[in-house]
Specification:
Bound molecules: copper (II) ion
Radius of gyration: 26 Å
CATH class of the largest domain: Mainly Beta
Order of helices and strands: HHEEEEEEEEHEHEEEHEEEH
Number of strands: 15
Structural class: alpha+beta
CATH superfamily of the largest domain: Cupredoxins -  blue copper proteins
């Protein structure tokens, strides 16, 4: 089968179920293209062929051959194959076959609010405690199972190859948890807790390696402030003329760092984006700012060390 994952500008696929979803979308596009290439010229031909000037009187019998019915039948069969052969099995897997306890899934609570992603880890006991209704949310101190819970804002840490279950809920309005690189999208609805699962198969380091490119730092300071890649990550160290490091490898290129690099005469940087969590529902005035990052760690040990940093 063709590899559709890099087809038509799809985001880089980093998850286990990404390839079949992309394959299905690819085949839908192929079928639509085939229909378009046939129907569009045929439509134009009929407009010309049966124009009123040439055919002043309607033909009340119409087409008598059967071939148009065969073509319609073939289209129905192709659509049925896409639906039954591709869409149903993928949907059944994603919605029903949640990882079992032996697969040791990483379970995360995700509580959305205007305009942030609150990522809650259950800590050592594996149990989530209650959270408060404050903004931003906090762990409710009256619930002992929450004592070791950890809340990370706008950053979701995962482990490569480890199945992940995210329980999604919302504190206020409807948001939508979208991970383009994981081919995951699910609305967060107040009053409901909706689980999604996926397996990240590409680490952040591998992702950055594949996505890195040389970027020019704009000479116009105003434009630098709106620089689209200001969240990008430096792929190597950049030092000023006096030898001080302005941007270290794996550091996020903030506007301030871009300013300092430009002042030091560095106008090109090798940088890469991170996998993004975006809100796919227009959820209010600050909707545009509701962006988070997924960091996929290479090993469980690396993940554990990172999570330790969030424990006070
Ligand atoms: Cu939102």
């Amino acid at each position: 089968m063709f590899d559709f994952s890099n087809f038509g500008g799809m985001p880089l696929d980093a998850s286990a179920h990404g390839a079949p979803i992309d394959a299905m979308m690819g085949w839908v596009h192929v079928l639509m293209l085939a229909l378009f290439l046939f129907w569009a010229p045929f439509f134009l031909y009929t407009l010309y062929r049966f124009r009123a000037k040439k055919q002043p009187k309607a033909n009340y019998h119409g087409v008598t051959s059967k071939w148009s019915s065969y073509v319609e039948g073939a289209v129905v069969v192709a659509e049925a194959v896409l639906l039954v052969g591709f869409a149903f099995p993928i949907w059944a897997t994603i919605k029903n076959d949640f990882p079992t306890a032996d697969q040791n899934p990483l379970t995360i609570n995700l509580i959305t609010e205007q305009f942030a992603w609150n990522v809650v880890y259950p800590g050592g006991d594996g149990e989530f405690g209650r959270t408060t209704l404050t903004k931003p949310i906090q762990i409710d101190p009256s619930d002992p199972s929450g004592a070791d819970d950890i809340i990370v804002a706008d950053e979701m840490h995962l482990v490569k190859g480890r199945p992940t279950v995210v329980e999604i809920s919302s504190q206020d309005v409807i948001h939508s948890f979208a991970l383009p690189n994981m081919r995951v999208k699910q609305d967060a609805i107040p009053g409901l807790k909706i689980p999604v699962w996926f397996v990240p198969e590409m680490s952040t380091a591998e992702f950055r390696q594949q996505m890195q490119k040389t970027m020019t730092i704009d000479a116009d300071q105003q434009r630098r402030r709106q620089y689209p890649p200001y969240r990008w990550i430096a792929m190597q160290d950049y030092t000023g003329p006096d030898g001080t490091v302005i941007a270290a490898r794996n550091q996020r290129l903030s506007t301030r760092i871009l300013d300092r690099l430009f002042e030091a005469g560095i106008t090109e940087v090798l940088a890469a984006p991170d996998m993004e969590i975006s809100c796919a529902q227009l959820c209010g005035g600050g909707h545009y700012s509701m962006r988070g990052t997924i960091i996929v760690h290479e090993t469980q040990a690396e993940f554990d060390a990172k999570i330790q940093e969030y424990i006070f």
